[in-house]
Design goal:
Elements lengths: L1 H24 L13 E2 L6 E3 L6 E15 L35 E18 L2 E12 L2 E11 L2 E6 L22 E10 L2 E8 L12 E2 L2 E2 L13 E10 L2 E12 L6 H5 L9 E15 L2 E11 L21 E3 L5 E3 L1 E12 L4 E13 L8 E2 L13 E2 L7 E15 L2 E23 L2 E20 L1
Antiparallel strand pairs: 1-2, 2-3, 3-4, 3-24, 4-5, 5-6, 6-7, 7-8, 8-9, 9-12, 10-11, 12-13, 13-14, 14-15, 15-18, 16-17, 18-19, 19-22, 20-21, 22-23, 23-24
Length: 460
Amino acid sequence: MKLVKSLLLGSAAGIVAVGSAVAADLPVRKAAPVDYVQVCSAFGTGYFYIPGTDTCLRVGGFVRYESRWTDAGWSVDGNTYDNTVPADADTLSTRINRDGGRDTSQFNQFARGSIQLDARTATEFGTLRSYAEIFVDTGSTSLDSGFIEFAGLTLGKRGTYFRGFGSPIIAGGQWMAINSGPLAAYTADLGPVSLTISAESDRDIFEDHDGVTIDGDVVGYGFDNASSGMPDFVAAMRYSDGGFTAHLAGALTEIRSGFAPAGAVAAGGGSIPGTTYGYALTAGVSFEALPTTTFTLQGAYSVGAHSYLGLGQADRRFELPVSDAYLTDTGSVKKTEGWVLNASVNHAWTPQIAQILYGSYGEYKAPAALRNGLIDPADIGGGLNGAAAQYNNMPNSFSTWSLGTRVDWTPVAGLTVSGDVNYVETAAKNRVFTNVVGDTVASTKKDDRWTATLRVQRSF
């Protein structure tokens, strides 16, 4: 009996020992890996949680190729002036936008990349958001937008709250396209209505030359802008409900001269004129007439705040200077006026093909007191056949209209091929010298330009 018991116990111990040895040779099952990057659905698609935080981040951007053709000559420096007049007054050295070597079609192409970072965190005060978009071009990198949003506040660089609707134009044409800039704003969200007040970087635009003298007479006026003592203030109201959006906004800008009028200085006295102000107003609507068709209409008016209009010029034969204000020899600050109207129709022909038809018309009015600087034909040897004309860099009034179309084809999600063609025509109130050689004078009132652009963009 004892022998049997000993055999059983020995066998059991052997089996346990063998089992332990076999188990030690088997691979150990590892714990499942932890998924540190988790999808965040609180703010829409494309967001994920930054590991170890409750902040959601979306990374996006695009890579873009563009080729562009225009009959304007993109390599021409539109800001080259020659304000001198020879003593004999028979040969004028005028500003020439294009000489004979550039009277041909112009073509260029370039690439651009964009990186967009959108970080959001839910707090007891609402969403804390920071956004940055960086443009990378050949040889340059720039921050296009970068701002913080929290509890109704927006601090940083972004587009102005003055503009209600973005531009459909890739290149050329004219639209209310205002560059982004630093600002501090507060927005009250009241459901379908939002109210915004914003202190933005000043968008002053001044012509800084002192004028042109012909036979001792000043026929052009300038404005030397002093450093701005305040930001531009913008107030905006926006209503959005379904397929309908309406936008109203106004802007206030400061106008300060940096010197005393030339006439007073020549007389041995004079003082710098006091500060005055300019303003701009805009209104616009956008609505869906059909599920596949959207209409947009917006207009703007300005007094002493020209840059808010986005009013362009053909800039092929000539480019007339524009300014918020001019300073006369008597010390008066004369403000310019202007208005513009933009309209577009966006129609989706198929889920992959959409087309936009757009147009614009606007006017710029130089102060009437300064539009008396016509050049006497006798001062240039009668080259104009007795017709008075206007020196290029003198205050001049003009109108500009533009018409164009853009087609977007999206063969697959994230890839868009766009073609944009537009025409711009500028009409000056007074004739403008474009070239003078000896007594042979070329002048015109009209200028025009065609622009065609091909864009291929991969967005992600």
